[in-house]
Amino acid sequence: MKGPKKYSGMVDCLVKISKEEGIRGLYRGFVPGLIGTAHGAVQFMIYNRMKVWRCQRLGLQENAHLDSRDYLVFSALSKCIATTVTFPYQVLRTRMQDHNVQTGGVVRTFVNTLRREGIRGLYKGCIMANLRQLPAAVVTFVTSSMHVDVVQLRLWLNQHDHLIGGFTGGIVSTSVCHPMDLLRIRYSADRGQGIQVQPTYNSYMDATKRIFRAQGIRGLYQGVSANMTARALSWALYLQWWVVRIAFSVSSKEAFNKMREILPFHTPSENVDNFICAILTGCSVLCISNPIWVVKTRLCLQYETAAKRNYTGMVDCLVKLFKGEGVRGLYRGLLPGLFGTTQNSLYLTIYTRLKAWRCQGLGLPKDSKLNSRDYLVFSALSKCIATSLLFPFQLVRTRMQDHNLPSGGALRTVVDTLKLVGVHGLYKGCLMANMRQVPAAVITFVTYENVRNLVKSTTY
């Protein structure tokens, strides 16, 4: 049987080396490493000589741009030669850093290797080193020798600033606020009055303590990968499509008019049409991301008191869900989710109106950059209003996606909830939802606005 591993990770290894061997241990193999730095110099020298030779053969200037194939061949060949010539230093360095055998210094390691294995011992692993170095050299060549079309890259960034900002904001906010989301889901899934498939929590603080005691910080971040994927994808698509471009950009009038052509009817108010467009966008995004939301809910509802876990992670949950329940399982809770898309639409409508009002009050253009305090207040206020008004849809959706109890359809879930606990039951977890949604919205939009402005500033 194999014994226990000496080091559990990078930090543990660093600490143990420092304690046991001191500074000397941290710098084992330093001398052959220094000599081995000649590897890069040798490669660069050979590479440049090959380029000059090729330019002379073609009758070009020394710094002329060559064919991509030439760069590829020269880069791979020079890397091969440099690696082979300087490889013994890599062998010595590796053996000096090995904790399993005492090697002594550079000279002793070199002499011992020659005595036991001959010259061949100094080239052990050379083939694999070249196999590894060749693709690395090709990647280096691709990034350094080929001309990158900076203009096109900047244009793409400028066109997708909302997507980049929304994606970043979704990831940052989820990484901070996921524990509150988990508590909200567990409270919403609790049907009460004798229907117990989960631990009974006395308060949010009690729930946090019990989860932390049983599973540590990992327990509070159950389902975080699915949550992060779903939120980042949803915010990126939602903010890139219609709403922000319509509401914030002066140049998006044409895009808005095209969107209005799809609507079966129009209202006298452009704001109402904006709201309808936002709902359609939200429905489209949800149809794409709903399977990931189902996975996130189910991972969050794997309780610490359960005998065994049904799912080991996001991919495992997706596969089992599809095999066990088919496409229908992947789209559980879609109907209340579609109604719930009005939350983001309402949220963004309020947010954009507040932002436009603030810009107007300051005498600035519509899409001007405001300070972070304005973004914070506007996003928190708009999210509170939208979440409180439409929370019952979130609760129904969560209960329909719960794998611990059959829920039936959306209507049956609403009726059963009203019978058991009344209207109050439709707002279970609403407090935590606002406690989670407000900081999440603040983080999302402050990140979004700043990342978006950063992207725009680097594209001009």
TrEMBL record:
Keywords: Membrane, Repeat, Transmembrane, Transmembrane helix, Transport. SUPFAM superfamilies: Mitochondrial carrier. The keyword Transmembrane applies. It is a multi-pass membrane protein. It is found in: Membrane. The keyword Repeat applies. Gene3D superfamilies: Mitochondrial carrier domain. It comes from the Eukaryota. GO terms for cellular component: membrane. One of its GO terms (biological process) is transmembrane transport. Solcar repeats lie at residues 1-53, 70-150, 157-248, 269-357, 374-454. InterPro entries: MCP_dom_sf, MCP_transmembrane, SLC25A32-like. Belongs to the mitochondrial carrier (TC 2.A.29) family. This is Mitochondrial carrier protein. It comes from Oesophagostomum dentatum.
